Amino acid sequence: MKRSFWIALAAILLLPLGASSQTVDDIVAKNVQARGGLEKLRAIKSLRITAKISQGSFRADFVQENKRDSMVRRETILQGMVRVQAYDGHTAWQTNPFGGRRDPDLISQEESKPLIVDADLEGPLVDYKQKGHKAELVGHDSVEGTDCYKIKLTLNDGDVRYYYLDADSFLEIKIETQMTVRGAVQYRDTILGDYEQVGGVYFPFLHQSREHRSDQGTIFTVDKIELNVPLDDSLFSMPATKTQPKPVSAAK
Question: I need a surface site. Which of 107, 135, 146, 159 has the fewest CB within 10 A?
Fold first, then answer.
């Protein structure tokens, strides 16, 4: 009996450090459960977020609509003009009257990456393996005095996100993004808060976003979230433009 006890004890002591700690999949599963559970997340077929954006003296209304699978449309509304950015699962496009362009234009593959990530209704952490992402539990870190689990998520497009999950609630309270555009890495920090439950799912109603180490940021305040609203697929598709007739060449 004594010999068996010491063998068992030695086996425990020789385990690699952290072998008994939680894995990244454990933490992700607790995050999904904290948000409302996988069943309720997957029951969301569409949603509409109505919000306000402020950045310094700039103020605008904002509407985002999502629909399965992988469709998203954003509208930024200011003084009767509407900037649209959308993705229909295949093509990313925009209209930008603030820049003097009312006709729809394609968005480049690199610049459309944040839009495509936003098209994921559940978010990239859910079923990350099936989506081609890679997750790693980095350890613990603190966000404004709150102990957090830190997860590094490498997206299937090569960009990186660090998720900070409250160690008590397991909800996301900060996301750091590293996105490569035209060979340059862009860094952005987003603080999430004011969680409220809608249809049994918790959503952050406050987003504070800024370029890494920048003093100026954007505040995104949600007014309302609606689930499973009827949305036609045409909302997300790039509208056809009126083709201009070709000039007739002069007869030789």
Answer: 146
